Amino acid sequence: MSNTEAAFDARSLTKRFGTRTVLDAVSFSISPGEIVALLGPNGAGKSTLIGCLLGFLLPDSGSSHMLGHDVREMPREARARTGYVPQTMGGFGSYRVGQLLRYLAAFYPGAPTPDSAWLSWAALDPKARVSTLSGGQKQRLAILLALQHRPEALILDEPVASLDPQARHDFMHLLSDYCTATGASVVISSHILSDLEKVCSRLLFMRRGVLVLDVPTTTFHAATRRLTPAPGAPADWTRLLPQALHVVGRDPGTNAALVGNWPDHDPAFALDNLPWPIRIERPDLEAAYLEITR
Ligand SMILES: Nc1ncnc2c1ncn2[C@@H]1O[C@H](COP(=O)(O)OP(=O)(O)OP(=O)(O)O)[C@@H](O)[C@H]1O
């Protein structure tokens, strides 16, 4: 992969099911080496977006490119440089673990085998039948299958949902090491925010099919503030905020506004003009997530 070629490039992806718009003009580009979190509540459109990114789903408009190729006409050699961990792994029940790894590896150049660090992390008996694996073991197998050919562009749809805390912790470290060693790019969708903020360099927040915020993790931590006016402020108090401030979320319960571009060098700047005292706090990712995706 060249250093400048985007691993993933979504261009105004729109997808409807019947009359319902499930993705609405979603655009972003992911560079080599980035690990990007895809965040959003149930039904926000994450799996639909992943389907369009990979080419499993056809968008109604817009396009998706992976490693410089339109996914609708991706050459087999380029497709072999990508990997995907689905939300649930179905089928292959009658295979044994080792047999399935070898069978699928044969589709890739050089019939690769899983890296020893990943094999020992997965701790699967190669002779076990896939149908007898627990949910978490199936998830480990899906991860091994997606990684054994060392993909440069990898998408993981809720890969850690059934993993125990130790396996999740170790998975996140291995994934981070893998990207550092290979320069691979990763999109990872998960509801476990504490895991994601440790390894992801960028956060994509989705709300009802719209990409509402796309921000580097460091910027998110440095420049996100919750502004809460004293009681008595009207619901539309944010219209009095300086125009340069970008409101990225609201909490109707507390009347707070989440601002995504707080200038740290000049705290409380220009809030003096507001008729109510404003409390300014740094929110953690979980609290901010609720306000951004509400
Ligand atoms: N094949 C389909 N036909 C009709 N509606 C669909 C179809 N697939 C998804 N949807 C709808 O599209 C919306 C987005 O679904 P999607 O699976 O992309 O959400 P998600 O963000 O991945 O959710 P979760 O976190 O629960 O996995 C949902 O309202 C869902 O009901």
UniProtKB/TrEMBL annotation:
Keyword Metal-binding: no
Ranges for domain ABC transporter: 8-233
UniProt feature coiled coil, ranges: none
Keywords from the UniProt entry: ATP-binding, Nucleotide-binding, Transport
InterPro entries assigned: AAA+_ATPase (IPR003593), ABC_transporter-like_ATP-bd (IPR003439), ABC_transporter-like_CS (IPR017871), ABC_Transporter_VariousFunc (IPR051782), P-loop_NTPase (IPR027417)
SUPFAM superfamilies according to UniProt: P-loop containing nucleoside triphosphate hydrolases (SSF52540)
UniProt name for this protein: Thiamine ABC transporter ATP-binding protein
